[in-house]
């Protein structure tokens, strides 16, 4: 019987992660946030306006606050459909 030589002295194989090479350097240190944890003040103002507005069309009356909330969320990388 002949024995087959197995090379156990080399380092373990590492998978080649090509996506890691494409990732910009600045994104590695950026913390991931949840949408519920950002823009709390803007969201609160928007909700208060929509809920307690006496206008005939609260959506139109609060569009500036809605826009501020969307812009804030966009700054954190969330794109709200509108």
Q: What would your notes on this structure say?
A:
By secondary structure, this protein is mainly α. It has a domain of 52 residues: Helix Hairpins. Helices cover 43% and strands 0% of the residues. It has four helices and no strands. Helix 2 runs antiparallel to helix 4. The longest helix is centred in the middle third of the chain and has 13 residues.
Task: Provide key terms for this protein.
82 residues; mainly alpha; Helix Hairpins; 4 helices; 43% helix; 0% strand; elongated; copper chaperone activity
Give the SSE layout.
Elements: H1 18-22, H2 40-52, H3 58-61, H4 63-75
CATH superfamily of the domain at 31-82: CytochromE C oxidase copper chaperone
The H-and-E topology, N to C, reads as HHHH
Helix content: 40-55%
- For the report, how would you describe the main beta sheet? none
Total strands: 0
Class derived from helix and strand content: mainly alpha
- Poorly predicted runs of 5 or more residues: none
Number of continuous helical runs:
4
Q: How many whole angstroms does the radius of gyration measure?
A: 26 Å
Strand content: under 5%
CATH architecture classification name of the domain at 31-82: Orthogonal Bundle
Mean pLDDT: 79
């Amino acid at each position: 019987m002949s024995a087959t030589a197995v090379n156990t002295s080399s380092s373990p194989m590492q998978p080649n992660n090509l996506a890691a090479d494409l990732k910009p350097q600045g994104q590695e240190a950026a913390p991931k946030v949840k949408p519920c944890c950002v823009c709390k003040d803007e969201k609160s103002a928007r909700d208060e306006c929509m809920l307690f507005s006496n206008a005939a069309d609260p959506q139109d009356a609060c569009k500036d606050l809605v826009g501020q909330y969307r812009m804030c969320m966009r700054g954190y990388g969330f794109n709200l459909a509108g």
